[in-house]
Queue: 3 jobs
Job 1
Amino acid sequence: MKLKKQFKDFYDEICIHEESEDLKEKRDVLQKDIEDNFPDEMRAHGIELKKSDIEIFDQGSYKYSTTIQAKVIDRDIAVMIPLDIEKYSDPRKIKGYLRDAVNHVAARTVKIKEPCVNVSYYENGEEWMHIDLPLYAKHNSKIYLARGKEFASQYSWEIADPKGLNDDLCCRINKNEQLRRVIRYIKKWRNDKYENSTLDHEIPPSIGLTYLACDCFVSSITSEGDDDLTALQKTMTNMKNKFQLTYVGGELTKADITRYLPVEPFTDIFEKMKDASDSYGITFYNRLSTAVQNLADAVNVESEHDAGKYVKKVLGDQFKIPPKQTTSSSVKSKREHGFG
Amino acid sequence: MDKTEIISKILDSYEEITITDEREDIVFFEMKGKEYGCWYSKIDQDTSSPFILVKNDTSYDYPHILPTSIPVDKNLANQYRYVCLDENDSTVIFLQSFEEKIVGLIEKLIKLLSLSDIEKEEEFQKEFLFYWNEVADCSGIFNVYLGQERKFQRLNVYKNNNGKIRFVANGISLNDVDEEINGKKKWKHLPELPAFYIPITDKRRILPPTRDKKWTAENIQMIVCGKKFNRISHDSYISLGKEKIKTNNVAIVFEMEVAGNYIDFTAIIRFKSAKNDTLLNKIRQEIIEVLPVVSRRVDYYYLCKQIGNETSLLDKKVLLVGAGSLGSYIAKEIVKAGVKEITIYDKESLVDENLLRHTVCDFWVGHSKAVGLKYELETIHPEIHINAVNKNIDNNLLISEIKKVDLVLFTVGSSDVQLEMNKVLKNKKCTAKVVYTWLEAGGENSHVLVIDYSKKGCFQCLFTDRNGGLINNKVNKNSDVEVYKIRNGCGGTRVAYGNAVLLRTTAVLLDVIRKVFEMPESLNKLIDITPISVMDMEDMFVERKCGCCGDENNK
């Protein structure tokens, strides 16, 4: 089996296994602020909210342990409150009250984003962490996500099932460590290849990649242990094969990928990417194809050193290439030591 | 072709290399923006190898480029530093031609200069202690005694009159800590320097200090409260928040795993004030200086790991009956194999004639062998604790001692003593493993017998015939041989057998003891040792008709 140690070292390198103590402390303080101040803010606008009615829970990669190192720590914490959304039909206002509840500390910069309230932390003028607070309303036994920027014309309470989504992903990923690793490799690949991308919806979303990886995952275990190279190669090949391609005059003009959420609102995770530009899907497909080709070369090539070079093209500089094996017949290296 | 020409020709064949200068014994070339020199010795030796220097490189942020300058120019116009490209003894230089040596060097240099950031970090971490000690303050000597457990803790700090400082983990007891010199304790507690052990669980981005990149508060804060991920365990972090400090200095022994080994490095951290606060807060807010110091990890667990000893012996207690020649050899070696606690029984005193086949020195002539052995063993390492009893063991003492030990070792010559003790151990259902070892008359052959008294087989089986009758030790090979005895004038005798048999027997015994604890369920066994062979007889000695361990109806 090729590159076993290199994959292990790479995984150790990119992994974030748990919240850092600093993040944990900042999250605890933020949570307390929400619990202490959000009811007052709501009350000031004539909405009754008890501290005990606020439910705060984990969302995203920290919940199902697929977090990888990134330039900025990205944490998702859901805030759920009971609210009559027919009476309070403008989610932008409620998000504004949540923002005001936490926007009183110099260390934080709080902004309202389309799907959440975003709390950023800066050091020496650079953002090092943000905590996204998606706000949910419980109404008539249904849950709704507050969507819309502060002054956007489009806004809505969108039906959602954040806990169902958590459960679904935890159920798929937990107890399958190779899948968890493959998801992290793919996220790392995405981060590297889209390092310079800044446009909205240009980058394939983590949740989309995670679901595609789960759907397409092929386990590979040999007598020597887990073969992550083969598992990654097969999984990414299957992901590539999920695209619907449109050619005009031999030229690829559209590469669509679709994955519906398995819970409310059952929408296509890649819809926004598709709506934004056809070129985004093509770029995604082309980059995936290149990765698949490099991984196939890594699987097929005999030398472990050469295989490492191909994988490095996919996963980046943090993947270490094993040394070349000496094929010289004359014995020049030796395994011995002093006798101290 | 002379050597300079050979080097130049080889260098010239690399696209990425440009030759800049040639001298009598060194060829300079440029690669990746820096100038290097390939230097060879004019005194041709098959076992010498050329090496690479970097010229006028003022940065220290690259691994394997050593910090100290080499005086190549007589007038010191340029600074040269050695580029370390080989581990000692990794190649057989003798087998290589001069050309192969040069090609090998250049290939390694190219590889070194092509390292990715993550590979550079790995190389720096491999040589972490070299860099740490290079910038460290060497004025103090800090010996660190840690145990097997990798858990945050406050260490006990002791200092002696010579300025030596010891950081000692809880649970480690040192044999000289209560020693006195002129009525004063040799080691004193040092409350003004609290010390802590912090195991690092994630070493990413931890680089050693270099000459141009000293460690500051940020490095310590990154380890203790890193923003992106934790480098210490949650438990350590919580403990740091509980430990109160009211000094303006603290010593921290960090430990991290590098390439399968644990390395320990110590920093003295100076705070702005001595105000009473938690260690965590002081690290976050009060650090004004980080001073790397040279420390040496010297605990028994660590030393055993360094030579590949079985660490399961570290917590085993041994009773050694007999501190004669064989007992002294065995005692010394089992201590070096990892046993830290031994109780030794022997009432004899050392005489000059014992010296050449006993491990204690002539200082102990006229004194108790057991006591002499205690002092010699305890000087091997302060974690060794020997209880020397200057008397021969009797039944009652044996009954009391077996409750406290994991292994009983008989190294007495007398079969009568061993037979008597064997009966006691069987009757008392001794749960400790018991090893009998003895030299045959004549001293050529020896034997090791391992007994677990919950199983069949005991020392008396060796003295029992097929019918249950008592006979002399039947596994001795040449019991009837004429032995050259030296009489010492008071009924005692000494056999002149040299000392090789002691080494042979001790070597076998070390393996036996290791296996006894590795495989506690293994069968009782007898091993015969001759000058040319070691024969494991498994359980052939078991006799159902033995009067001690045999079936009741056969007695």
Job 2
Amino acid sequence: MERLVVVGNGMAGMACVEQILRHSPQFHITVFGDETHVNYNRIQLSAVLAGEKEAGEIVLNDLDWYRENEIDLRLGVRITGVDSAARTVTGDDGSVTAYDKLLLATGSSPLIPPIAGADKDGVFCFRNLNDTRALLERVRPGLNTVVIGGGLLGLEAARGLQLRGAEVTVVHLMSTLMERQLDPAGGQYLQRKIEVLGVNVLLSHTTTAILGNGRVEGIGFANGYRMETALVVIAVGIRPNVELGRAAGLAVNRGIVVNDYMETSDPSIFAVGECVEHRGVVYGLVSPLYEQGRVLAATITGNRGPRYTGSVPEARLKIMGVDVFSAGFVQDGGPELEAVRYEDPAQGIYKKLVLKDGRLAGVILIGDASDSRRYMEWLRTGADLTDKRRRLLSPDPVPDTGADVAQMPDSETVCGCNGVTKGAIISAIHEKGIRTLAQLKQSTRASTGCGSCAGVCVGLLKAVAPEFEEDKKKALCECVPFTQDNLREIVRSQKLKSVQEILDIYGNGIGCEVCKPALSYMVDMTWCGEHEEDRSARFINDRVHANIQRDGTFSVVPRIRGGVTSPAELRRIADVAQKYAVRMVKITGSQRIDLLGVAKEDLPKIWADLGMPSGQAYTKGVRMVKTCVGTEFCRFGVQDSIRTGIELERRLENLYTPHKTKMGVVGCPRNCAEATVKDIGLVGQEGSWQVVVGGAAGKTVRKSDLLIAVETSEQALEAAQLFFQYYRENANFLERTYDFVERLGIEKVRRETVYAPHAVQEALLDRLAKSKALARDAWLERDEPRHPTQFVQIQPMEAVPV
Amino acid sequence: MSWIPITRAENIPLREGRAVKVGGGEIAIFNLGGKFLAVDNRCPHRGGPLADGIVSGDSVICPLHAWKICLSSGAVKRPAEEQACVRSSPVKVVDGIVFVQLTAERAEAA
């Protein structure tokens, strides 16, 4: 068996090895990687920095893959020398490894410009997982940070840091951002978008020094201007790692020179990826890797024939809410070039096509990159656009993705990064019984690169796979296509305090009955009182604090803490019911009293006459604490469930939660008030309490999980409060505790609440106390309505005597 | 046809609706920022009060069973296959007063 040695365990090397393995197992393969990680998706590092993905989620080939393919993987070993005469490579661990074929996939390194003090503590690159981890360790909310470099990588780094709460300034040498991929106008559109997100941009500034005594304290520019900063990221560009190519005596210009068959000047040495130069071009992008890998695999396995003829450079900014796409030649230029533009400054949309001889030469899309695939196809195929000139920027409207994917020809590339066609995806779905996007990724590699084609892949799955299953991470809704986790982070980091603002910046500007209440909850929970509540974003129940019934009337449920009332209170309720001719008085399943069939106009008057606080029976909030009589009367009671239950209700009442929160406190394990099927339950034992969470007795029945067992009532209440606040902050809107606990696992919940470090618990309780201090009985709006016509039936003016 | 003065514009908050008894029935008037729109205050599904719905662009979602009604045409947009329609009425704002245009017989009833 021939020995193939691969230097470089990154995306290029492994994409190539994957292709080689498809041909035949003719090699014994050894892979050297100087990082200590298995192959991961480098272009998703910005998602890790931004907290959208965990490091584990961006792994492309796990250890099992290397094992299954009998690849000898040597991590943490840097190859320092090549002896092309002896056909050996030498590692920095002293090892010497012989090869028959050598593949150099050494990639590139960050370019460090000549800046004094670039070696200070607090200066980082952003190139690999270790850089990312180091950044995550250092970044803190409020920390002043500077990113040098206004290109793709710099901007993604800046956004990542800023999502972690840092104050970020991007410093760029040139007069517009991403000047290599955008024209000046496009750069300005991008800049506005970046600034709206809260990242500062400083253009035309040459950094000359990083200041500070050992540790970064500031940064100095050629014009004498200085800025304070505690952290600097250098992301000005990359340079190909060609040292081994030189050592091996290969032809090297900017990169290791390869021909169309991906051969170097030495017949037993091959090279692929960012370290190579092909027809005078060095690519620093992901999509050429795969095309090169396919050709190289054919050549190296003795199937020399396919040729690599170059790639259309394609760049896509991976910042949520900022669509930027660029491909091909995009600058205004000579007389033979024509530019076609579309601009909508208010919407932040800028599109530009550059045409040459009636064919597409380049494209810029900002603010809406949904047509990028079509333009890439035109670029790749060099299609004659003469008969399309009237509709270059406005494709025939397509009602939805389903129809869109149906119209695509089978030969059209869906995943540009991995070169996967529609036809390949469809046959994989049929032949392998694929049902999820995750399986599709595994099988075809589609959407494992930049991920921008995931929507089309899902569209194809929906159209073709009979039992398509949505992946777990679901976007909130079409209006704001982000997961709720992302949105909570966005609300927090971007200090967004109104639903409309979120919709305008991150969504379609319109919203619907699904996203508006969810966003409303997020804003409310995050800013608890520091914001202007937008009632129009809330369901009618939360506008008038009563539960709408099938005939448009409302039900009224006053708070009766612990279910304990008094003769006077009952008498008052009876009087009110009679006075307003309430259609039904009903004892609820939650030990409360419901007055049904009340007109909206009567609500404030009824509340006033009752003189009782809102029972929140209409909202996603603290419903009630159901209790048994406990030690006060019951001969079996071992804990004072009434007093503890009333206290629990008092501590949490008037607060809102992701979904309704029902609680129960029982004085003994007989569980008369069904505490073990409540969202939060306190179950009294002889000398102790069990605090249980995530129970349900609704559409599903679920026995709660034990959160913790404690000695005193006060400890039980505190544990309940910790869980309550943790649920408020981390659950998705409309996610009941039983789904929440199951999704996270009770172990994680325990670890992050009752077994969390003291400071974390204190912080949770502090935030709860802050919300509680601002929470007020909603029914007080009877005296101070939010709006003059909140409860009023408007009368036409003629009918009102002037 | 005649224009009936209804109320001061500020009595209908932004992106909310309000019900008005006029023309022998109830009309729901919505403030959509740049414009006001009006439809009958009865969802064609089960008669839900549209004025109490959440506004989504130029549509409202009925609070009872989430039917989506276009406020300019009155057409049901969801469920998609549903052909029903509510009556919409022209609205204008003059000197801060919202007017609704009603047919002669409805105006009579008002």
Job 3
Amino acid sequence: MTSDSVQADRGSIGAASAPPLRGLLPLAIGLLAWQFFGPRNVPYFPPPLEWLRALDALRISGSLWPAILTTMSSFAEALALSILIGSALGILLGRSETVDRMLGPSLEFWRTMPAGALVPVAVLILGYTESMTLFVVTLTSIWPILLNVRSAAQRISQDRLDTARVLHLSWFATQYKILVPSLVGSIQLGTQIAAPIVLIIVLLVEILTQGSGIGREISLAQSTFRSSTVFGLVILTGILGLGVNLLIGLAGSLLRNYATNV
Amino acid sequence: MSVAERAVGGDTGPEQETSDDRIAFRCRSLAVDLGIGDYKRRIIENLDIEVPRRQFVCILGESGVGKTTLLRVFGGLVPAAAGSMLEMNGERISGPPQGAVFVFQNYVGSLLPWRNARKNVELGLEESLPKAERRSRAMIALEQVGLSDRANDYPRQMSGGMQQRVQIARALALRPRLLLMDEPFGALDAMTRENLQIELRRIHQASGSTIMFITHDVDEAVLLADRLIVLRGKPAAVGLDIVSQLPKERDQITTKEMPEFLMLRHKIYEMLRGYGAPA
Amino acid sequence: MYQRINLPGLTFMAGLVLLWEIFSRIVGARLETIPSVSKILVALYQIAIDGPLFSQLIHTLLVSIAGWLMACAVGLTIGLGIGIWRPVWRYSMASIDVLRSIPSISLISVALLFFGFSSKMEMVIVVYVSQWPVLLATAAAVGATPKSYLESAKSLRLSQRATVLKVRIPSALPSIVVGVRLALTLSIALAVVAEMVGNPAGLGFGIVYAQQAIQPAQAFAYLLVIGLVGWGLNLILMLVVERFMRNHAVSS
């Protein structure tokens, strides 16, 4: 009954509905208030428009786009690697209980390791190289994918596997037609969770090593007290983060179509 | 003497009577709309019902006619349309009225799974009674439904029939003047249902509450009711309103063979099938 | 949880440690940067007995746990507000989605600007970033309280306060716990990172110092301690949660 549910709904959220745009009001008001009523000439409180100007200055000086490119390419590489390794390990752990028990405690320990702590050690061993960045980011970001794939792999119904055997499917065909489509959903879900983490860790490594990319620019601006630049870059990373989330979400919907059509 | 009758020796009757103590519940020109904006439909039109104290009323009707909605309106969970008059013990109803309790069909959703049976029953008492009295009232209620030995068990440890009985105990613990029951036995197996029907009848006799009971099961309705109301039409109106002449004491075998039983049953089916004219 | 001792797991770990020891001794002569397990343990002993390990450990623990508790309090309160009243949700959720999408790391730079190199900076970052998972989990779970529970409460004429305390929160508890656990992981991680870039105190500072002084065994020792802190606190939280939520099964 519609009215009943409206009645009963009073005071509760529709669980999965997208938030209305008017929710942006507090943010918009906050930014506007900052712009027009914020303290002038206080060093660390530059009004929002200043941030954009600072970003533009950075673009003109030629540092902006290379930084974005560096960060995003690290991001893409690390994400791809995380998906591959995370899925592979997830399948391995999910399908073999022995391996799961064996590797379990060790992985448990690494899973809870705070990401940043790996960087100094990795720097000592691998130096300030791209492979170091890739190593650290991947090691810390595979977990959502691994865990999701692992539980999905554990739960692949025996019926499906029996179907493959009854139809005398080759090993390859089994992987392609049965295993992977069953797991695609969990891979996508894990990726959705892992993507923001990958971005954060990439930036983290860049900030800690002051190597290159957006992280380096932020760190540089902060240490020279160019606060507008800092704010501008922070907003930039926020936009990149949002963009990444949207893309992955989109990929997810596309994949869902594939998975159901196979 | 049944458990229910034994319990009457204590103070299980409803609370203080008000001035107009013949009529427990009354509605006049009751109309109910459902839906919003363009989808608004009038579900119930022009209902006039007066329910005297201690009466066991069963409301019947085809699926979707609006029985559940009507009961929810009585229970203050759904608002009536403008122009309706709705009163309980002389006071207008807006929101769940004092002294009325609802028993839902879906017992799984209404019992709190993190509380054991006793604590679930105590839920409605926690704001008004001190601990010791709460506990004793809850235990009495559980005894009335025959579950005093399961007081410390959790809903997931119980069968459907038991969970529904806990819900009923929760309602009874409040000593309600009006008990509103929405197909409470609908999801239970036949044997449990039959036992609970008789038990409910006994509880009703002993406690003096007024009961309004929805069901689509004609036999159940005729077995339990002092008065039968059949809803019909779109929007729904009272098709049949008849007081049962069956004796107070009822059981699953002899009552169902009485001519009065068969006559009531016949009339109700006629009304449901559309042969009789609306009252 | 670990009802029976996981023999294969422990054996595997022990095997790894052994392999490491052998590998680092063989290769170690050339690749000095991978110290053997024994060297790491020696370094650990040194920083613990002669060095600043304990004061650093206490610092990181204090900031992480205090920050985490504050984050939970803030996240729970705001999350409740959003979950209970639909208008609040409507006029704030989009902003919250935007705010939490900003990578926490970039905010460290902002915090450094405002608070400089201090424990205050560390605390602010920990609280700000860690409260998001709690806030979101609370808002979502409280908002999705099953209507049947709410109707029962309404029919029993429970007050608004009683409904929130006795129905909404218990119903949301499993999800809130997930958020709280995530918040703990974040608190520890951010405290360490903040110590690495900003606040010269705590385990984060210790490990960076070891790295810059080119002391690999010491760096690994710190890594071990940090890892144990993360693992240990998570374990304690999980045990506490299991103890208190034994009877809490909520049918989805």
